[in-house]
Amino acid sequence: MRALRSFLAAVPFLLVCGLSSRGQNAPRLEASHESSSRQKAAAPLPAPQGLEDHVVNGKVVLTLDDGVRLALANNTDILLDHSRIDFAQNNLGRAHAPFDPLATSSFADTRAKSLTTSQLQGASILNNLTQTTQLGYQQTFPTGTSFQTAFSANKFSTNSSFNTVNPSLATAVQFTVTQPLLRNFGLFPNRAPILIAQRNLRQARSVFQAEVSDIILQVVGNYWTVVLARENLEVQKKSLDEAQKSYDHDKKALSLGALPPLDIYRSESQVASRRVGVIQAEYSLKQAADVFRRAIGADLDPAIRALDVELTDQPAPLGELTSTDIASALSRALANRPEFEAVRQQLASDDLNVRLAHNNLKPDFELSGFYSGNGLNNSQAGLDIGLSGSLSQTFHFTYPTYGALLSLNLPVRRHSAQANLGDALAGRRRDQYQERQTNQAITLEVTNAVHSLEEAKLTMEAAKVAADLARDTLHADERKYELGAEPVFFVLDAQTQLAQAELNLIQAQINFQLSVAQLDHATGDLLDHHHVQIAEPSK
């Protein structure tokens, strides 16, 4: 009792010392963890690629195709979306895990001493040594067949006088084969996860292709937005120059007494107003250029970000204008749009899930058989034949053991499996509606794209006529003003009308370029027209 009380009194002291030591070691442990985490830090993201190749005279000079290529290489959204394929590939590898072979091994060494309670135990102090070695291998095959083999060797030595074989070396090997006969029988239920993962990988590629097409369309829109802002700035500057010329002419006329003093304010007001337009156009161009820089990854490099962007493609279309009809466009969309392929792959996965759910409703009925051999380092004559003799008995199956087992698990109710089947059927019906919804959305997109293209063509032709007429009107009003037949008001108004007409023409041309890109996107041809191919994922 005194020893017990001393032990109980020492326990709190030991706990306090342990906690204190743990508190002192905490900073060192934390520092060790931080050091370990620093060593395992992720590699930095790669720098934007290809931008330096387009720097000319302190500017980033790009065609539309250059912008698309840079976006494919550097656009953060594209790089993020590609992770969908990476995850799908990893899931496909994970689906093969049930067929991975497994090898196991273990060794145990145990020494035990104990007092005996009977003379029949063979010693006053029993001293036993047990050493056990185990090796195993197991694998499941696509047919559902499971194969297992196990080998064990056990050495036992004791000081008991009653043991006739001392030390004893017992070995055994066993082969076991198990085959499902109902649930999980055959290739399909065992390979279904792999088939579903393959479908998911194809679906991920199709979804990624659709996302790339969306981003390319966005880059094309950003490119032409910058061009529009640049052309708008040029129009505003030209309009300001025209207003400045009129103002200078009025000042000269005023100094000569040919113009009433109050009439000078009209032209001066136009100069101030158009200067405001120039300022607004300049900042609109800067904002559009910043959006375009982000799309191609130029904002990631401070040196490139500080450079001006010069876009060389002109808004006026070259050659014969694109033309198509709704039926042809719908036919190309049905053949090319990756969204249809993604839905088809999803429906194929749904069918596999339904079949797999039906399989899980079947009873668990299995047949297994085993065959084993065992040996001992002792012969029938009582001679010690050593480990080699024990192994010889084992692997020659001198003393075999074999048998078979037929097992049936038949649940009375299968709520979980029935619910899983219901989910699979509901998921397939939902994706059928999703297919119809996709078809409706793409049909509407194609129809609108064709209509927009036709509208853009007609608008562009009308805008050309309007710009020519506005230019002729300005020249006529300027001539009349010089001859004194009209006041300056008509000239200023004609300048405003011409600036608006030129801006409308540029807007119509860019709308036509955007309509062509939207039609290519709607029919699934946008990637081909920009020479973009999505590589097939490795399986």
Strand elements, count? 9
Note the beta-strand portion. Answer: 15-25%
CA-based gyration radius: 42 Å
The chain-level mean pLDDT equals: 86
Largest β-sheet summary:
6 strands, antiparallel
The number of helices is: 12
Unreliable stretches? 1-26
Structure report:
Mean pLDDT is 86; it is low at 1-26. The chain has helices spanning 2-39, 64-74, 76-95, 187-255, 264-296, 302-305, 326-336, 338-360, 386-395, 415-482, 488-523, 526-529; strands at 55-56, 59-62, 102-115, 125-140, 146-158, 168-180, 308-311, 364-376, 399-409. It has twelve helices and nine strands. α4 packs antiparallel against α8 and α4 (187-255) packs antiparallel against α11. 26% of the residues are buried. It is α+β, with helices and mostly antiparallel strands and 539 residues long. A six-stranded antiparallel sheet has the order 3-4-5-6-8-9. A three-stranded mixed sheet has the order 1-2-7. The longest helix is centred in the middle third of the chain and has 69 residues, at 187-255.
